[in-house]
Design a protein that fits this description.
Elements lengths: L10 H14 L5 E4 L6 E4 L17 H11 L1
Antiparallel strand pairs: 1-2
Length: about 70
């Protein structure tokens, strides 16, 4: 999913919000493994959710949107 955010982004606040969301919902921390052909659910412990940021500010304005879509 892509979102268009306008204005300044508080990256640490967004990271905290994502971390809180993942902490609250086990389904976002769950993976499935099949050791020896037997599927098992693994609920991972709480972890920080880093938010990678890519700046496109160095690109000309008319190229930024296309570059953002490529990154996404």
């Amino acid at each position: 999913m892509a979102l268009r955010l306008e204005g300044a982004l508080d990256v640490p606040a967004m990271e905290r919000a994502l971390t809180a969301l993942v902490e609250r919902h086990e389904s976002l921390r769950t993976t499935f493994a099949a050791p020896a052909g037997r599927t098992q659910q693994i609920v991972h412990p709480r972890a920080e959710v880093p938010l990678p940021v890519t700046s496109l500010a160095a690109l000309p304005a008319e190229e930024r949107e296309a570059a953002a879509f490529r990154e996404a």
